[in-house]
Fold this sequence. Notes:
single chain, mainly alpha, 10 helices, 0% strand
Amino acid sequence: MALTRETIVDTALRLLDDVGLEALSLRAVGRALKVNASALYWYFHDKQALLDEMAATVSRRVHVDPPTTGEPWERGLRALAAGLRASMLAQRDGAQLLTAARPSADHLQFMNELFEAMGQADFSPTASSAAFFTVVSYVVGATLEQQRYVGTNVSEELPVATDQLALAQARAALPDWDALYSSGLELILTGLRPGPPPAD
Length: 200
């Protein structure tokens, strides 16, 4: 197999599925490719550069179109959230990988188009940035939690004492991960409004 940036990234992503992000290293990737780790430095000058390209590859697997002129601003944020979550869940430690990486050119172009659409809906630049940051932080945080407990029911993560009735009722009412995520996202989108924040 010829050594290229693409084969290195593909091998690193397969290895990530096997060993997880903490155990991933250039040396481990080199072993998987049957080359010395030093050979990888011709393509990636350090592990961070490799992580950046791995994250960009994961993100590109789910294409997200920004909203077009006249479409509701919520559509862009929902599409962003759905695409981001799907790309992270498709890869072991996907949320950790994306948080460890720096933004790619693809991310920046999408952000620019999304902010343009939000500006047309009367969001100020500050409000657009805050909305974007809030939604992305929620999606990444929710996915991090879900990937920490792969294969378990969300309600199982809340140990409840016998005298904690309110917590026990809330625990029993918890939906699955997908429904819990969707409910949280809708709460956030409902609270987002264009224009300046209300005065105290």
